[in-house]
Amino acid sequence: MSVLDVAGLTTELPAEGRWLAVLSDISFSIAARETLALVGESGSGKSMTALSIMRLLPPLARVSGRIRLAAGDLLDLPETEMEKLRGRDMAMIFQEPMSSLNPVMTIGAQLGESLSRHRGLSSKAASAEAIRLLERVRIPAARMRLGEYPHQLSGGMLQRVMIAIALAGKPKLLIADEPTTALDVTIQAQILRLIRELQDEDGMAVLFITHDMGVVAEIADRMVVMRHARLVETGDVADIFARPRRPYTRALLAAVPQLGSMRGQRNPAPFPLVDVETGETIPPAAPQSTMQMPGHKVLEVKSLITRFDQRGGLFRRVAARVHAVENVSFDLQAGETLALVGESGCGKSTIGRSILRMVKPKSGSIMVDGTDVLALSGEALRRYRRKMQMIFQDPMSSLNPRLRVGDILTEPLRAHGIAGVDAARDIAPNLLGRVGLEARMLDRFPHQFSGGQKQRLCIARALALNPSLIIADEAVSALDVSIKAQIVNLMLELQASLGIAFLFISHDMSVVERIAHRVAVMRLGEIVEIGPREAVFGQPGHRYTQRLLAAVPVADPARRSQKRITDDSELPSPIRAPDFIPPVRRYREITPGHHVLAEELN
Fold first, then answer.
1. Which of 228, 318, 423, 494 is the most buried (most CB within 10 A)?
2. For 440-485, how does the pLDDT look when each residue is reduced to its tens digit (9 = 90+)?
3. Domain with residues 297-538+572-597, CATH architecture
């Protein structure tokens, strides 16, 4: 018997005096203990399908068809009944955790609210259950995290909190909208296994929205392919992967990055692009990187240490410190890409924010184009930030929801005096075109874009000032495979023509293999391995690097029965006592330029 049955679902929104169909005649069903994957490009209607099922649409939305959960049609229920169902009978993990969590409530309060409302637990019981849920989704120091606020957690940890909240009510249907987007591969493997365990225990049905075909191949029983708000193809996962019938489906599968595809190649290379109408491969226009000799050093980081105090007690004394970045050193040359990889919370994003002086390092040296960034302040720092831009991990929280896209893109140009209002408006359409968006979108607001489209807006804004250094913090994590390939190719093209240096922060090892010249692997705030991409991926010297590579999902349903290596030990915490003194680290060079931490981390 189906837990969820959707038939003829059509959703329309008012736009410019007419009704715009954002979903057209969508039909599928999900049985107990079954996982249905919903895949397609950004803007295809995947998230809108989930919002329509949850009835979380704008008040003027017009919905028709049938959405049957258990024995009732959700479209016939009053809002008061829907409020009882959400979180209890069906729950949703949203794509953007930072905009889904309440910024003024602690993590414990938000988990406790769900547990009290849907399971009737007392305050004491809810607190104990909240700790258990956080531990199940692999959050270290769970008891301490209950008193923290969303802004104090990394993107990956925020997503795990969202998963814990969704599971709190033990729902019959779990709608997961890109639930592993912000997670590294090791935690991703654990979360996918957790979802499967919950299905076995509780008979839960899962609607899994994703652009990661490796995840689809591993977890889904059936899949629905969507494009332009319509259903393109549906069927068994193994059958579609082996024999896709539609050109669009063939294009999606052909664009999936495969770990190991760059073996034997020293320099980065663009993805082969695929025609979504015919399914045929198109030779990429982006030139392959030809950097053979080192350029000048754009960035030089030496002995960087960034820590965050945690205060407590009556006098708010320092009770502990988060050792986010501990004695990190590396350099980055013009025309080069250095990828930072590692588990969520390992310090990757903190390094990027330290370089831009968005957080204050405790000690160390940061040189950008020969200038000490840590010595700059005020207007001098603001002017120098033209040279270094950042693409943030969460696009919604980094875009002003009250500004139109045209104003968002032109604001950096005006603020730095590069162009006046009229000149900046002439530049904006070209910026949109470079990231695959249309000029007619300039008058829209951020909320009118899908998650992937919002990330492309952030990339366009970063390109506006023609910086010499771009710190890309999960810049392509929210994009579907075909757009991801286009953005990576765009970055390679810009690098080849302008000599831009990229610090590429990512958990997608397949993309890192394609775009990076060198790779630095981080764990607990420290670099455990750094070297040329081919050496690190081909002959990883540290056991943590080996585990990361082994945990990458493979887009092949036939290999689902092969168990991936996952680490079930408790995730270590970077929180230390105030008097903790880190041990002195030594590195050994196993091949030229390839360095590995000699001692194992605690």
1. 494
2. 999 999 999 877 788 888 888 988 888 999 999 988 876 777 777 7
3. 3-Layer(aba) Sandwich (3.40)
